[in-house]
Amino acid sequence: MSGSKFTTNILLTILLITGTFALKAQTNSLKNIRVLVYTKNGKGYVHDNISSAVACIQKMGHEHGFKVDTSSNAAIFTKENLKRYKLLIFTSTNNDVFDTDEQRVVFRNYIEAGGGFVGIHSVTGTERNWTWFKQMVGCTFLVHPPFQKFDVHVIAPKSPLVKGIPKVWQHEDELYFNKEWYPGITVVMADDLNTLDAKAADIKEKGQGSFSNLYPAVWYHRFDGGTIWITALGHSKESYSDPVFTTLILNGIKFVAGETKKLDYSKAYAKSRDEDVKY
User: Angle of helix 243-259 relative to helix 50-64, nearest 10 degrees?
Assistant: First the structure.
């Protein structure tokens, strides 16, 4: 065999092996991991979708080989307990969901140590008085028009986060307008404000802010050590049996799990909930 052919064959073999490893890593990113689904609500509105969301994620766990724990008890936020989880999922949590600032620091340290976070729907209305949490989520809730159909656009078509999602998806939901937007987020799907009912014009004017006709619906970022994925969609119980919406959530879980490595608490630095972020 000539030297050039031998070199070519070696390169092809290396590419095949590395490609196989990359595919295997992607395929098995959920296998045998453990996630925590947290559902606590503070004083105020509590969504009736929570049990449906939990059942949806438990079904995903069964189908994809990952373990799902659920809780609405803030006492679970201890360092030793959170070490068990690849990522945390807050589904339609609302208002204050921690009982003490000590628990808030434990949660923050988990993210600083490299933990993963998935937030669904009214997670943007969670811990509204905690600046760090609002920055982590990417914003905080402002207002929404009545439940209705509107279009949601994929604006990052090459992202794995939108695999299996229609480029334009007509969806029935609450369109959340938010405030205090964090500048570090990357938006992958956006609500089309032109498709809102004309009766929502006043709320649209109040909530639209400096955005034009596309408004963030799904985004991610890497914040203070952790990997964060958020969707403001998901109000109705029926959403959690909608194959498009469940694919969207699964994509988010896969992404966060794949980006989240072993926790390293040597990188966790905050001693108080409001300590300045070390960018």
Answer: 60
Q: How far apart are CA 98 and CA 133, in angstroms?
A: 11
Residue 227 pairs with which residues in a beta bridge? 116, 222
Q: Is 154 helix (H, G, I), strand (E, B) or coil?
A: strand
H or E element, residue 222: strand 214-223
Instruction: Please tell me the distance from the alpha carbon of residue 13 to that of residue 4, in angstroms, as a whole number.
Output: 14
Flag whether the pTM goes above 0.70.
yes
Compute the average pLDDT of residues 117-142.
Answer: 98
According to DSSP, the residues that pair with 141 across neighbouring strands are 178
The reported pLDDT for the residue numbered 28 is 52
Q: Residue 117 and residue 178: Cα distance in Å, rounded?
A: 19
Strand pairing class (87-91; 34-38): parallel
pLDDT bin (cut points 50, 70, 90) of residue 29 is confident
Residues 175, 181, 185: CA angle, nearest 5 degrees: 95
Band (159; pLDDT cuts 50, 70, 90): very high
**Residue 164 zone, left/alpha/beta (φ > 0; ψ -120 to 50; rest):** left
- DSSP, residue by residue, 58-70: HHHHHHHT-EEEE
Does the CA dihedral 55-90-121-46 come out positive or negative?
Answer: positive
Q: How far is Cα 235 from Cα 49, in angstroms, rounded to an integer? A: 7
- Low-confidence winner among 12-21, 28-37, 72-81, 108-117 (lowest mean pLDDT): 12-21
Here the tokens at position 238 are 């029926």
Tally Cβ neighbours within 10 Å of residue 51.
13
